[in-house]
Amino acid sequence: MKTDRVTICDKPPCTILSSARDTVLHVNMELSNFPPELISRVFTFLSNKEDAIRHHIGYTALYACSLVCHDWRATALPMIWSKLNLQSTSQKIRIHERLSRSLTESRSHAATENHADRANHIVMIDLSADMYALEEHWSEVTAPVFHILRLFSPDQLHTVNLHFPHFYFTPLQWRVDPNASSGLPSTLFPALTRNLKHLSVSCLCSSCTDSDAILQNLPDRLEALHLTGSSDSPWYKSATSLDRILSLSKLRNLHACDLRLTVSHLERGLRSWGPRLQHLRITDRIDPLEDALVRALTAHCPSLQSLGLQVDLGDSEPLQVSNDALVALFGSCASLERLVLRGCSAMSNGLLAVCASQGRGLRVLEIDDPFGRLTGEGVVDLSGWVRLEKFIVEDSVWSGERIDMDEAFVLAVKTKCHALTKCKLRGVVVAEQLQSDDEL
Amino acid sequence: MSDPANITLVTMDGTTFTVPSAYLHRSKLVQDWLRSEGDKQAMEVKHVTPFVLQGVLNFCEIHAEDTSEPLADPADPTKPFEADPRDDAFRGMPDDQLLQFTMAADILQIPELVRLTAQEMASRIDGKSPDQIRAMFNPDDLAEEDVDSDNEMGEVGEEGAISK
């Protein structure tokens, strides 16, 4: 067969085994030939972290693209308007009023003149209740926000991020009346959250009524939930009914911070969340790292990819996690690639030895051992860490005593963990390559 | 019956190229065709010119022995993307050629080439005004009435910027 080597585009030659090539045909390619999905892919590479308001304020690249031609505009508008951030202060009342009016007019034009209905594109919304701290402007500030919310359909939103003020910064009414409410959660839940998949709430329990409105109406389709409590609130106990969280059967990602979850709670939840659960992060005052929890994870959550347990323990006695339970966890959760343990009292060289020999899927291991027990002494089998890329042991012993890692262990890490790009053991840098944390 | 070790591609004007099938293992279109119609003489690649197909085949040859996992979604912004020096020439092509290569990569369903060309298009667009983008890519005109409500939003933005 004839081999014809052809040089094109000033590239290295391409080996064409044979070709019948009479002419080099150039086509006057125009954007009108571009399919919308391809335009969308190009736009995906433009920065799209901004919400609709920031796109307009900053005259972003995506916004510029929306003014180029009909096809680009049709693709760019849903991307520009997909996210709306109403993190409001009194200074933004006029912005929200204009926005509310613009969205309303856009809807009426869409009905009569085949124009884009911008409000209809919004699927992610960031809402701040800081505005409610401004008691004297209460109704004035909230009116346009509620007007915008009323433009949404029940199935429209898939992501909601709610930011409540810390209890100390809430209006006086909230601090003295457990029934006081911003009205925001009761507007959203359940009427506008039927299709909600991602929910984040910070400073839950600043208001008892608001918290209950959320917790009792968590939608069935929720896949990712990030809840941060506000344990300084006197309404904490009355508001934190966790039963609904524990029964969410589609949950894949849970980050629970300061909700006072118990191991008993978590066992119930793990049974409900089951094989769907991929990411679990608990930050609480109760140490969940005990055999019962590890065995529940082993039994119910084989798809777990990341596990983070952070504990504020005080001087409690260390709990015992058996090596057998950990071995079973690594055996059952073969996809576990990120393990972060902070403050857990069960930290020991025995636990580290199990991680090193059995954690074959681990890419990230971060440990904060405030008790200073973990040194690596006696940990010699690192055969499980073939994929380990990031290994951190924080240097944060409560007593202030200087604890050094075992030299033989550090040497073994250096010589045997070939995939490591970032390793810092009690303040000593063992490996550091230029790589962003995002990649890990 | 075509040689299974090689594949013949026919462009929009009838020009044929025969290359090792292994070059095109990342092309979903070609792989689907080989499975369903591999007994035919040649695969037609309509809407692709000889010049562009030659460039695409060049890319495929350069990356034929890459062992990285195929991209499931070429536009997944969470996947880290490091510029490959072997692709520098593709990044340097004129705007009209870049459009054609992006289209061809999409037609042949080669995610790695779609990502390369789409990201290059995005980087050229970034920071440009609508007029500059039009000059680059020659689109249809945009009716003025479409942007009226955007102007109002622009005023909203200006107020926001002032009130910050």
From TrEMBL, chain A:
<dbReference type="GO" id="GO:0019005">
    <property type="term" value="C:SCF ubiquitin ligase complex"/>
</dbReference>
<protein>
    <recommendedName>
        <fullName>F-box domain-containing protein</fullName>
    </recommendedName>
</protein>
<dbReference type="InterPro" id="IPR032675">
    <property type="entry name" value="LRR_dom_sf"/>
</dbReference>
<dbReference type="InterPro" id="IPR001810">
    <property type="entry name" value="F-box_dom"/>
</dbReference>
<dbReference type="GO" id="GO:0031146">
    <property type="term" value="P:SCF-dependent proteasomal ubiquitin-dependent protein catabolic process"/>
</dbReference>
<dbReference type="Pfam" id="PF12937">
    <property type="entry name" value="F-box-like"/>
</dbReference>
<dbReference type="InterPro" id="IPR036047">
    <property type="entry name" value="F-box-like_dom_sf"/>
</dbReference>
<feature type="domain" description="F-box">
    <location>
        <begin position="33"/>
        <end position="86"/>
    </location>
</feature>
Automatic annotation (TrEMBL), chain B:
<dbReference type="Pfam" id="PF01466">
    <property type="entry name" value="Skp1"/>
</dbReference>
<dbReference type="InterPro" id="IPR011333">
    <property type="entry name" value="SKP1/BTB/POZ_sf"/>
</dbReference>
<dbReference type="GO" id="GO:0016567">
    <property type="term" value="P:protein ubiquitination"/>
</dbReference>
<comment type="pathway">
    <text>Protein modification; protein ubiquitination.</text>
</comment>
<protein>
    <recommendedName>
        <fullName>E3 ubiquitin ligase complex SCF subunit</fullName>
    </recommendedName>
</protein>
<comment type="subunit">
    <text>Component of the SCF (SKP1-CUL1-F-box protein) E3 ubiquitin ligase complexes.</text>
</comment>
<dbReference type="InterPro" id="IPR036296">
    <property type="entry name" value="SKP1-like_dim_sf"/>
</dbReference>
<dbReference type="InterPro" id="IPR016072">
    <property type="entry name" value="Skp1_comp_dimer"/>
</dbReference>
<feature type="domain" description="SKP1 component dimerisation">
    <location>
        <begin position="112"/>
        <end position="146"/>
    </location>
</feature>
<comment type="function">
    <text>Essential component of the SCF (SKP1-CUL1-F-box protein) E3 ubiquitin ligase complexes, which mediate the ubiquitination and subsequent proteasomal degradation of target proteins.</text>
</comment>
<keyword id="KW-0833">Ubl conjugation pathway</keyword>
<feature type="region of interest" description="Disordered">
    <location>
        <begin position="123"/>
        <end position="164"/>
    </location>
</feature>
<feature type="domain" description="SKP1 component POZ">
    <location>
        <begin position="7"/>
        <end position="64"/>
    </location>
</feature>
<dbReference type="GO" id="GO:0006511">
    <property type="term" value="P:ubiquitin-dependent protein catabolic process"/>
</dbReference>
<dbReference type="Pfam" id="PF03931">
    <property type="entry name" value="Skp1_POZ"/>
</dbReference>
<dbReference type="InterPro" id="IPR016897">
    <property type="entry name" value="SKP1"/>
</dbReference>
<feature type="region of interest" description="Disordered">
    <location>
        <begin position="68"/>
        <end position="93"/>
    </location>
</feature>
<feature type="compositionally biased region" description="Acidic residues">
    <location>
        <begin position="141"/>
        <end position="158"/>
    </location>
</feature>
<dbReference type="InterPro" id="IPR016073">
    <property type="entry name" value="Skp1_comp_POZ"/>
</dbReference>
<comment type="similarity">
    <text>Belongs to the SKP1 family.</text>
</comment>
<feature type="compositionally biased region" description="Basic and acidic residues">
    <location>
        <begin position="79"/>
        <end position="93"/>
    </location>
</feature>
